[in-house]
Amino acid sequence: MATVLTTASGCGALLLEDKGPLPPRYSGPPLAADDVVADLTSALKAEGITLERMPQELIPIECHESLYGEHRAATAGAALEAAFERARSEDGWRAEAGNGEDGRLLIRKGNWTAVAKLPEAGAPGTAGSATVPVAVALGCDGGLSKSRSRTGSPAPSPTPS
To answer: In whole angstroms, what is the distance from residue 50 CA to residue 61 CA?
Structure first.
């Protein structure tokens, strides 16, 4: 019995060995935020969805973008799916692991990942509504919280845009 425990604990030690940091998910040059936002807003607009870009001073994380707006409830989900497909086929985005699970759309281009939640039919607060909220969040690899100025507001982001 002692041999079995020793062997089992010896294997466990190998599984926990520190191999150093993981390699980056993307090793090419970082893409500018303005470029990835332009890709997605163009694909969304082609499918009839117009979203606004959230001002950077309202976003507490560097290397993060948020697009938001409203769309017709009856077609919002299909239009979002078509826009993400258009971004893949025309602008070089690719499907990310987990795409389509739990009503989420995930695509990736370079060091950026975009995610949108498909609107739920009959979700609370949307029953009988002509429009539903639509949002797309974009984040790049390595985004950190923005440092705050003495006034408590986020300092300008040093990331390229």
So the answer is: 24
